[in-house]
Amino acid sequence: MQIVFAGQGYVGLPLAVRAAEVGHHVVGYDVDPHRVEQLAAGQSYVADVDSSRLRAVLDSGVYSATADAAALAGFDIAVITVPTPLRDGVPDLTYIESCARTLGEYLRPGATVVLESTTYPGTTEEMLLPILEEVSGLKGGVDFLAGFSPERIGNKRWSFDGTPKLVSGIDAKSLDVIKGFYDGIFQTTVPVSGTKVAELAKLIENTFRFVNISMVNEMAMLAASLGVNIWEAIDAAATKPFGFTRFTPGPGVGGHCLPVDPMFLSWKAQQELGVPFRFAELAADVNRHMPDYVVRRLVEALGNRGMPVRGSRILLLGLTYKYNATDLRNSPSARVAELLIDLGAEVRGAEPNIPDGDETKLNVLRVDASPDEVGAADAVVLLMDHPRFDLPMIEKCATYVLDCRNRLSGVNVETL
Hints:
Blueprint: E1 2-6, H1 12-21, E2 25-29, H2 33-40, H3 51-59, E3 63-66, E4 77-80, E5 86-87, E6 90-91, H4 94-106, E7 112-115, H5 123-136, E8 145-148, E9 165-167, H6 172-183, E10 189-191, H7 195-226, H8 230-237, H9 261-273, H10 278-288, H11 290-304, E11 313-317, H12 332-342, E12 346-350, E13 365-366, H13 371-376, E14 379-382, H14 391-397, E15 401-403, E16 413-415
Parallel strand pairs: 1-2, 1-4, 2-3, 4-7, 7-8, 9-10, 11-12, 11-14, 12-13, 14-15, 15-16
Antiparallel strand pairs: 5-6
Helix pairs in contact: 4-5, 7-9, 7-10, 11-12
């Protein structure tokens, strides 16, 4: 089939390459010409797609990247994988709207449009469908098919195609076609009764993680004040073989999903029902202040050694939003650095997973985590324990470490 993936980011590119690998003719559409140039040159900027895989589908002619909307003509299935950010706490669906209008111009009878972008319940049927109908002059469920299938990126245990895939449609025929398409890409598909169920399911997944991370973060602050080792307590609780899921504290929550997705449901509940989504809002408040807590602990530690934070040389290790990631979006390290700079500290950052040139996003001097750099710091803060960091060396060379990941030990180390 002729498949269009609109949006070639961390969701769209892996899907596009996988669809091409299983035999579809794929057009990867993106409005960013720089991205398209990189893709056309066989250079992947997404960790889940090796450049070798990208080059293979390019060379075989089953995948092409373009910023020209005219290349969308004739599609059998179009999958929307565009961003859905928050703007001042309000969901910004302008990327979906713009993409829907573009696809509507090329929508033909018998074609299918699938939304994957995370959003609040009702978006597919209440916004996407009317736009497609308005622009195309066709009727959803009669002339064309549509549905929602939330993105799910794999992890160390579950591969991309091995992660079960939720699918839904605006009617039974839409669901049947959409399920058949994803059956060829994923090992397992899970159909649900409607698009609102699938939209809410995605928000439940991420809100579950968000709330539980918030809980252990708040517990970490309480445990430190009570003189209890939170990490040992979590390990002890995790010995229970049922009724418990292990979450660990950290400097905050970042990335493109967890700080954002629960707020979609919070906004929808307030707008449509006039009630707050209290768990999500409380979790957001706790996690928003975790960088402040990290800095407060660091200031106290320096004070106990007779050193003011002003003029102190602070080395931040690991600037991405999660372990071994290559993504700085919404990373709590940015807030940690900002607070320390405001207090007059000399802040440096080591991030081996991000190419040079991105340091302006964090406003810190980029350095390598070398023995000399670690030893010269008045304090080291381990924000992310990337595998490329030499942890034994850090234990040996650092004067003081605030370990936010419970990976180091020694008299010069304090854990969060």
